[in-house]
Design goal:
Layout lengths: L16 H14 L4 H10 L6 E7 L2 E6 L5 E2 L5 H14 L7 E3 H5 L10 H7 L8 E3 H10 L3 H11 L1 H11 L10 H4 L2 H9 L3 H10 L2 H17 L4 H10 L2 H9 L3 E2 L1 H13 L5 H11 L6 H4 L2 E10 L4 E9 L4 E8 L4 H20 L1 H11 L3
Antiparallel strand pairs: 1-2, 1-9, 3-6, 4-5, 7-8, 8-9
Helix pairs in contact: 2-18, 3-7, 3-8, 3-16, 6-7, 10-11
Amino acid sequence: MKKLYWMIGGVLVCIGFVCSIIFWKFQKEIKKNDPEYIVQFIKEHKEDKNISVAIQYNQQHWVELNTKEQLPLASTVKIIVAIAYAQQAADGRINPKEQVNLKELEAFYIPKTDGGAHKAWLAQLNLQGADSVPLSEVANGMIAYSSNANTEYLMHVLDFQIINDVLTQLNVEDHEPLYPIVSALYIPIHLMEEKNLTKKATLTALRKMDMVEYRERALAIHSNWIEHPLTIEEKTKAQKMLNMDFQKIWSDRLIRATTSDYISILEKMNGKNFFSAEVHKYLDPVLEQLMQNPRNQAWLKHAGQKGGSTAFVLTLAAYAEDKDGNQTEIAFFANNLNTMEQIKLSNSMNSFQLKFLTDDKFRKRLKEEFSEL
């Protein structure tokens, strides 16, 4: 059977044999890679505006559910940064071979806020004493490992206005502007110190803050970090501040868009005729890193994706063309998930994509069942 090697970016204490069995069954259940879980989840949440799904197959609308609902993108928004990177590389405005000192990335890294993504990227670099990497590798780490620090550094290099101009070029209708999401993690500390607030009062003030002020504060913090990076002590303080209440506010205020927007973007990338060949020269190596695997090369012409998650969100935007010329685009956004839902969706998404791409009976059944929703 064909396999697709995607990269998707609890503690339970029991005593005795019975609790061990319960724990084993619990672990087995949440780790199950089951495409039917995705199908049933979509059906059960068809009235829930926090779930949005759009699937396209050979330019036909296959599955559509709440496709105009704006939901937080989490790291899926990094697709836009990758496009801006490729365009500026193609235009000669940036040099992908330029060396970036790792200390420059460190300025945008707050430990234990990215699921270990940045450390995992650094660990596989095999630097052998080097303290810098090419800009192209920073972009690779943004997508393959979902490093938030790399993303925010690239946002600085590429310029926020130029990045947001990409949204106009793509002609998306409901995509919010990009802003620095790592810097936004520091807003609670900054607000508390600026206004001399208690933690509870800071939480209340954040909830009342409109998005214009929120983005402006994030941009101001980002600009300040360029010249005055946080100390280790300041990063530790920020990290300790981010309990689940503050994380929920941060998650809810992440850049939002619709699955309708992302199906449009994915179709442009999948068709290879919207962007110039020179742009694809830089874009494809970043977004299509799963094609480095020979097993994927055996049956796919090209394929790319970016997923995203927080404690409450799971998103995915993926595209592929197989060697028979069949093109697929999938956009799945979910918000306000509980822990079990988040884990099970994440663990099952790979097999769902694979089954849709390779199983004609599964595709036809989905089209029939979801046309009735």
